[in-house]
Amino acid sequence: MKRCSKSPSKPRGMTLLETMIAAALATIILAAATALLLAGGRVVHNTEHVADSHDNARLAGETLLSAVRQAGAGMSEGLWVVSSGTPLRINPLFGGDGAGTGVLAATTTGNVPGTNGSDDLWLVVPDRNYLGRNCAPGAAMTVVKPGTGALQVNCVGAPSGAAPANPMLVASNMKSAALLTQTSVTSTPPTATVNYQETAVPGFSNAPHKGGFQRGDLVYPVRLLHFFIGTNANNGRKALMRAEGKPASDVSGRPFMDMGDPVVVQDYVEDFQVAFGIDATNTGDPTRYDFQHGLKPEFTPGLRSVRVSVVATGRTPRRDTRNEAVLSEDLPLSVENHTPATVPADGYFRSLFSRRAELPNLASASL
Fold first, then answer.
1. Do the Cβ atoms of 24 and 32 come closer than 8 Å?
2. Domain limits for position 94
3. Which residues pair with 238 in a beta bridge?
4. Pairing of strands 191-196, 121-126
5. Up-side HSE of residue 65: CA atoms within 13 Å toward CB?
6. pTM for this one?
């Protein structure tokens, strides 16, 4: 009998049609995965941008509030300064309004009047470490001889440490104070003599009605701080800036002016607004304060509170599904009495930090 046997079949490859179908399916899957990854990347980018914006606003606002809470220690009844050769009693904090003119105009870098609607703020802030040190730059010294002119203070030993480039002091009876531009401190243990530029102004002191400085007044260092919105030269974007000040008349006729280049406090801050709360009738009720935009330097009884608002953005614009700037949502914000000009949306999400701070150093109940 003949036995039939089939030869083994040869391996069969993919047909051209099958190859084309597989390639098409792979292309679809890869395109979908790419689109999903790009969409996820945009979500992450936008989320990070919003978080970045929130952080910039919060950090700027908290820095301002920290300085505000320190301002005016020992100056609840005003600070005496020499302006154009004449003693003037001023608030230890004041500021211009972005919409104001004259004394109420806001200034920016180099005391140039602002044009973008943002406010500015001046603060007289004591050295945090003035207590607990003996006869050193930054220490609090006590007046031991009443009168005007150079101050004789208790100072055991020679003053230690280097004084700042433009040291300023206040002599305070913990109600009113006088701002002194220190020229030198001469030690003659157990006392020292503080010399200052305003010595030649007749009758200048923290209590003119008493005929000069009094025994027991404290003498301690302060800084004049100026906050405003300026342009950071490193990135061309707006930022919250701070400059150190000195007694002098600025372009708006106020008694302080910047004495050097400012530093960047926080980048990507485009607006800064301040409202000052006045307890005009001395009710002591924070809910009845009258808030106003801009405060003149001249002493204002009843200054009790400050509301600080800052608007910040992230570093880069947000993107939509077409990888374009989100044009419909991201616009400048209106804050306090400042309504920005109408401009095309730029993709920058804006975060607003607004908080009210009481001024503990200006309330008599805090003494």
1. no
2. 52-366
3. 231
4. unpaired
5. 16
6. 0.86
Q: Round to whole Å and give the CA distance between 233 and 4.
A: 93
Confidence of residue 192 (pLDDT cuts 50, 70, 90): confident
Residue 28 domain flag: no
The pLDDT score that the predictor gives to residue 74 is 92
Are 307 and 68 spatial neighbours (Cβ–Cβ below 8 Å)? no
Residues 6+ apart with CB under 8 A from 206: 80, 170, 171, 172, 173, 176, 177, 178, 213, 217
Tokens of 244: 């150190």
CB 351, CB 313: distance < 8 Å: yes
Would you say residue 300 has pLDDT above 90?
yes
Number of domains in the chain: 1
Looking at the chain, the whole-number percentage of residues with pLDDT higher than 70 is: 82
Phi-psi region of 296 (alpha: psi -120 to 50; beta: other; left: phi over 0): beta
For residue 24, being part of any structural domain is answered with no
Contact criterion met (CB below 8 Å) for 337 and 99:
yes
**Mean per-residue pLDDT for 16-21?**
76
pLDDT, tens only, 35-74: 666 666 566 566 777 889 999 999 999 999 999 999 999 9
Residue 131 is assigned to a structural domain of this protein: yes
Of the candidates 151, 156, 129, 155, the one whose C-alpha atom is nearest the C-alpha of residue 141 is: 155
The CA–CA distances, whole Å, from 47 to 56, 196, 327, 333, 344 equal 14, 54, 17, 20, 22
141 has a pLDDT exceeding 80: yes
Q: Are 177 and 80 in contact (CB under 8 A)?
A: yes
Question: Does any domain span residue 45?
Answer: no
Closest to 220 measured CA to CA, from 287, 143, 122, 141: 141
Query: What is the identity of the amino acid at 46?
Result: N
